[in-house]
Amino acid sequence: DPRLEIASKSLSFRFRFADQDAVVASVDLPLRNSGSASARDVVLEYSSGSGAGRRSKPLSFAGGELKRILSDFPWSEAAAIARSGKPFFVRASYQRRDTTFSFPFAGDFLKKFFQPWDFDGWKAERHNDRTELRIRTFVVPDELAGLKLRFAVDIGESWGEVKLNGESVLPRFSGDSGELTLTTNARKGERYTIEVVVTSGAPLKKDIAFSSTFRPQSERIERFLLDSRFARDIYKIDLGDQSEITTGILNRLQAHTLQDLDGLLEPFEARIAPFAEAAKALKLHMIGNAHIDMAWLWRYTETIEVTRATFQSALDNLRRYPDFRFSHGQAHSYDWIESRYPEMFKEIQKYVEEGRWEITGGTWVESDGNIPSGESFARQYLYGKRYFKTRFGVDVINGYHPDTFGHAASLPQILSRSGMQTYTFFRPGDDERMFWWETPDGSRVFAHHPSNWYGTWSGIPDTLWTSAEKTRKKFSVADVVQFFGVGDHGGGPTRRQIEQIEQLGSIQVYPKTQMSSLGSFYASLVPQQASAPVERGEQNFVFEGCYTSQSAIKTNNRKAESLLPTAEMFASIAMLYGEEYPGRKLEGAWRNVLFNQFHDILCGSGIHDVALDADQFYAEAFAAANDVLESSLRRIASNVTTTGKDKNAVAVMLFNPLSWTRNEPAKITVKTNPGKEPRVIDARGRDVPSQIIDRKPDSTAIVFIAADIPSVGYRTFWISSQKPRESAMPSTLIMGNQWLEVSVDPKTGWVSRIYDKRANRELVKSGQYLNQLQIQEDDAPMSAWVIGLHGEPRLIGEPASVRLVESGNVRSVIRSVYGYGRSTFIQDVILYSNRAQVDFRLEADWHHRKQMIKIAFPVDVRADSVTCDIPFASIVRPADGREIVAQKWIDLSSAESPEFGITLLNDSKYGFDVKGDVIRMTALRSPTDPDPKADEGRHEFHYALYPHAGGWREGRSVRKGYEFNTPVIPLLTDQHRGPLPPASSFVQIDNPDLVLAAMKKSEDDQDIVLRVYEASGRTNRGRLSLWQPFTGAVETNLIEWNPLSLKSGVRKLQALTLDWKPTEIKTLKFSMGKNQ
Q1: What number does CATH give the domain 550-639?
Q2: What is the mean pLDDT of residues 658-676?
Q3: Could you tell me the pTM of the whole model?
């Protein structure tokens, strides 16, 4: 038999402002035939139970069928049922049966009346391929007289303008932030015309997303509704029967006498007042913010306008709402406004001074948290915090990285030594966490991972309370935070959000809700969390594909992180020899590099044009840095005696930017005459091993072994000419030097043997090859971010050729060439005569999509863990095969006796995986989202295998990583005399565990700043010596603030002996005397 049931315990309906300005209640009735037989000629009758009601047309239901029956009721009918206080009855008549369903109605009617209504009747006009106009004219009906009326519109990803009766009342908004008050006291018969101009950022291929709502408001009634609901549902307060209050409000609504509510509501308000104190013990800090991606699915040029519009919206809200506060970081965004919109910038300064606009974050941009070097992180805070201090007079102490894809273990010290006290982050994971985040030196910041996202607050009070109550119980705190505001493409807090928060603040039986700031929140929270757990380690992993996507950006980033500190170093030395320090030019170069470290740029998760813009910013930074470096080296060289044994020779000075003596192969191109080739000699006139690597009609490129180049210093060599030496190219695929013997397999082109003569051991796992090119399908949604491996890795295939292309007294090179569809690969295996490592070069012309290239090294070293280079430190991770992030090196060392290890060095890669005895480096990806052409084209990068006795500390892997990424710099000059000798060191550090990361002029005066960190993770002592006396020395933080005297460690005003805690970063500032 048929059996009709309603699949809901409550009546689902909402109000709608329909065409012809009719106010209707739209009922949505889910009616199911739970029987097996069909129900025919079903007629539904809706009523209050007394007298006949509205009847539907006959309906039919198959057995088991569910239908949603939609019916519209005029306001007068629905309101009459509600005022009667009776239930809403639905009677279903079918096949001689009657089934009646009843639903409570008055309370729901009142609640739904003050919720957003559907707003129909819009007319659309397409202006062009990017702009559309929506128009709606209405007349206020009697039902809405005396009420406040609100209008809201959501236009998706577009931008819009709202006009009311021809006047622009909302000049620019985005997404769902188009909300305004039409009137605070509607009058029957008033006419309003609303126009919404919607503009898309791209040509329209379909209709613009558009939805609108209309909402009557009465603050007193809505407060009553919320208080009664929260008192009953959340705090379980027995309020008794409230039907008399509901009926009284409905009658006043009908009679337009809502101003006469005191006698009706005061007894209720007095009854719940005793419960308010307990509810208000929990404080909700609502923080208005606008996450702005500097570039992502749009170029930075668009972000400038997004920033302007977002800041303008924030300023409008600050003027409109006295309690509103706005929080925003990223100094670069303010710099845009300062240079383009000075009057807006001045207004922002005013609100910052008033404490209503909060500067957060402290960085130049919201950078990635794993890929930038330690020095890059230091500069994010140095330039960011100094900008905020000079422009706004504030010292930012609350770190804010809401969208960053993971956070390195060394960040707490960088944060702490930048003057930061807290750190808010949202990735990875979903669970809320509060802890003291610490590094081995003892530095710590209070870290907070909130439970809710930074810009997706739903506005639903129940959800907010549930989340806040969960936090209160979990952490025993009285303060909870919720961020709000449209983000990513800017926008910021909307009027609706602000007014919802103001409304929540007025509710008695609800936590104390107020617009706040990070500073206010943490000032209250941190004292409550003094005994929070302490954590050491990284906050990873998420979006592992970003370690490799857009390889060219990462290559340029690594190059910049070597070049800029090198230019600064020698510019600061040249300054003491009369060269003007080009601080503004260097800061401009740094700003370009730091901007490109924004997480969606450096991580390779932007559109194609974002990568092109990044290339341009790098080119500008490189041009500036190279210009500084060239002029600085020439100034230093002009003070060096460069006369040699051969008066006709050209002097070549090799500069070493690292803080230890180096023996390095150096490359240089010199002019040569026909029938001659270069000859390199040292200060004693002895031949230096050299080798020709390229010839042109008037020049020759050579590589030579430069021995004993002093730390942060130089050594002079001389190049003369000689008759060409005869040399025959052997046909062997075996190379050797005093430490290693290397063999390449002729069939595969891969390394079949590396024999370490010192350790008397084979490095290649038996039956395997090193330097394998493996390819695997890599396809996943959000492919730039997410690695989606399918199937098993495949070998690239047999090479087209394998041959020895160089052989000499400096190096040997074996080259293998591979074809793979439209892509080609050239692999060089290189062995230098003075290096106990095997170098590799890969040149790829890459044209595949949704595939990944890995380079595999199955080595004869097995370990359960791998040590990875991270900013200013290293970290040990399980060798479990997952994709991990590292910088200049990773090391696999066994604990066998004697201990032995292998370090994989690289000059531009960040993604790796290690499982057991197989090390793999992620060479290239080819994602298609959001850039369909990502990584397509030519790439060149270098890497090396460095075997060593002992672990990574004994093997000096940190130094090897720096050497591989920081080449010695050649400078050709004439022979002349000067006050400095042909070889000299400007800075010396006597402890190999201490690394000089930066040497620069002070930001505030003519002092010299050196940044030195402890790299082994152990307590250390070291002596730092300068080439000339200094008159004073202090230690500062990374921002070069808060000086601390170091008199106790000074020796003869030319050396300084200090103690370093494990991984400690010291920033030392020296006042230099007159040049000696």
Answers
A1: 1.20.1270.50
A2: 95
A3: 0.92
